[in-house]
Amino acid sequence: MRYIPHTPNDIEQRLKEIGVSSIQDLFTSIPKAFHVDRPLNLPSGLGEMDLKNHITSISKENKAQSYTHFLGAGAYHHFIPSIVDTLSSQGDFLTAYTPYQPEISQGTLQSIFEFQTMIANLTGMEVSNACMYDGATALAESCLMAKRICPQKSKILMPKNIHPDYQKVCQTYMATQDIELESIDFNTHTGQLDLEALSSKLNNETLAVLVQTPNFFGCIEDLKSIQTLCEKHQTLFIVCVTEPLSLALLEPPGKFNADIVVGEAQSFGNAVSYGGPFVGFFTTKMKYVRAIPGRVVGETVDQNGKRAFTLTLSTREQHIRREKATSNICTNQALLATRVSIYLSTLGEMGLKALSRLNHTQAVQLTKKLSKHTKLKFTSPFFNEFVIETKGSVQNMLEKLKAQNILGGYPLEKDFPELKNSLLICVTEMNTNEDIEKLCKIIEEN
Amino acid sequence: MQDYRRKLIFEKSSEGRSAFNLYQKEEPVSIPKTFLRKEPMGLPQVSELEVIRHYVALAHSNFSIEKGLYPLGSCTMKYNPKINDQMACLPGFANLHPYAPTSLTQGALKIFHELERWLCELSGMHAVTLIPAAGAQGEYTGLRLIRAYHKDHGLNKNTVLIPDSAHGTNPASAALCGYEIKKIPSNKDGILDPKDVEKLLTDDTAAIMITNPNTLGLFEENIGEIAKLLHAKDAFLYCDGANFNALMGHTLVSKMGVDVIQFNLHKTFSTPHGGGGPGAGPVGVVQKLEPYLPTPRVQKEKDEFIWKEFPKSIGHIKAFYGNFGVLVRAYTYMCALGKEGILKASQMAVLNANIIKTKLKSAYHLPYDHKPCMHEVVFTDKKQSQTGVKTLDIAKRLMDYGFHPPTVYFPLIVQGAMMIEPTETEPPEEIDRFCDAMLAIAKEAETDPQKVKTAPHTTPVARVDEVKAARQLILKYQTKISS
Q1: Among A56, A390, B31, B165, which one has the highest count of C-beta atoms within 10 angstroms of its own C-beta?
Q2: Looking at residue A363, which CATH number applies to its domain?
Q3: SS3 A99
Q4: pLDDT tens-digit profile of A147-157?
Q5: pTM greater than 0.90
Q6: Is B411 strand, coil or helix?
Q7: Minimal C-alpha gap between A10 and chain B (Å)
């Protein structure tokens, strides 16, 4: 076995040194009754060449890879500059453990400190942690953190236009907590959160209001109005961002006095990879920093006064605080956070802004092309995703598009029975003009 | 002057520079001005080569498995085969959108289906979910299944028993599920005594969480008996599978009476730790817990794989389906090893640990020495502390010898613990070099303790002031206002 160096001779010598006669002698503390007593029904090992052929052939069964797609809905297909892969796949980033020993982990620590800075700057918040599993668990953890800040309140308002998977994850995590999630409708005309519904449900007993912007339908939420309502009732304001590229174009949630801003940073240099690994981000105000979940990197000095970075505020974490920790998270998604740092350094201030703008304007161009034949479902401004209402059956249309190797978008009826024949379409820089023409043509014909 | 390489990327920024071009004509934005960003984002402005040099220098200041032995106990830092990463990056996997119709993602679903089956086969469990993102999320999931079962059967149970040698995520995960935690002491041999379990076991007990082999590197020999006690009370045996590398191919956890186990693919199944993640923490369960597994679950109907929801499920615990890219790596690893390689891996992991135990026990205090260790061994600083040298000092001094330190001060029940797990991928020569370094440090502790106490001496930074970091919080870069 190429990953295991021991030759029969090595094994014999080692056993002699230990003073036992066989490998089995090392396993005597395991009662026989627990031993594997039958041949395992597992394949035999493969040499690297056969292995590569085998796995590659499975990957080719994923026919979707050769399709053009207009699918977003929380997983965004963006261009990844070559250097993101090259730099992040260096063995010293890839095969290092959690940086518990700062003297030999400055690379990971500094790149995460840079990640924290970039995410805090993008969201307009004071402090970011080192990352979460994904946007959905980050949102669930934000609800738990709200409860830590304000233990006497327990109702959280969750709009129906938040990503359905995110809503489900929040429901799972809240099921064993003293926290009640209450849905709020969206405005069927604008697609945004229904401010009247929010206003009627919000009172001084409300622990927090969650808002996703752009929301699941791609609509940009009116954070200013929501901020005013939250402030009136002294309710925590939590904002979730699933397409962080929008932050380059839109006023950041921090400008609207958000208390916690969480989201998904997959868009920044990470592949869609069938939904994972992704990388959640978590930001808040400095006054709440001790209630934050997960790891945090801080700047300090070494004993010679030289700048150094280290994990800090560890007394919140499970390895110190055990059952009283702010979260049970240990392993996170650090490598993806490093990729985010590299990606954002590569694109930089101008690149990210230009890319963000391009995503938006390409989406706008598409809606203009479609406008003769199809109507936009919602009236509010959008970023790079929008909803159309098809004249005929959305499933028929998706089948026709599929026949042309196009995945046309995300049909909403599955999660929103009231939105029949509504299709969520996402446009990114990866969609060429020809793709867009082709999509338009088929939609027009239906 | 500050070393250029120690600068943050923001400090290398020059207005107007960029490593990215878009040659597109600017179209008008159709978003009202009130919604638009007015201030810059504060991102760096650097050229492509500057980005390269920055992140190459950063990587160089890390230690990694590829540089040398990384014997972190209970972390299983084995070699991470390069082919695994290459396979996970194949366009058929990396570019696959999670909402593509399943008719076009059959290869991915096949990997889910087979990997689930293989983990069942290796553990003897009835069903597996691959969704949990990490070990701690696996623990959370497993305990939620237990909660769901008890609720479904009208049983009100609110306590989880956890040994004093357990990893901190165990109590943290149990607390997140709303359980009260009761601590069980280990006995003088470092394992659980069924009598101690019996004393704490009540009708309120939902489960016990046992790491096996435990964090002392010892097999919990009484686990079968403990399982019987629990089952008689409708309570479950949760096995933390962080140390599954000692067992795979050799021992079936189902035979111990385990009801739930989480696997750490980033430990046992060789996927890289990436400086802290991503991992994956699949959970295996007995038949009676299967209905509660998180969704969606992959199912084979006719000849096609599909995603399915189940009515009794605890629901979704993560967006989409789990850390698929990590699953591909683990799947590739299992294909490479095959059933023979899997057994050999656990055997050689145990052999390597026992060599270290044999070679170091004359120089370091070994608190538990009544039988061979499993995949890891725990020493203490008892002998060295006579000259004032502590575990932390030994750990830091190891860096000067070119090794990563072991896990230190854990498990908590051993004062000054050094928990060493070499894994099976280390050749005998590297094990010898590590032991020589440990022996040399033990000698230095006698002859030149100051040298050990002020270590490390050769690392990119000297000993780091962690107290200052926590007292004067600097958690992001702020442009200095020039004076």
Answers
A1: B165
A2: 3.90.1150.10
A3: coil
A4: 999 999 999 99
A5: yes
A6: coil
A7: 7
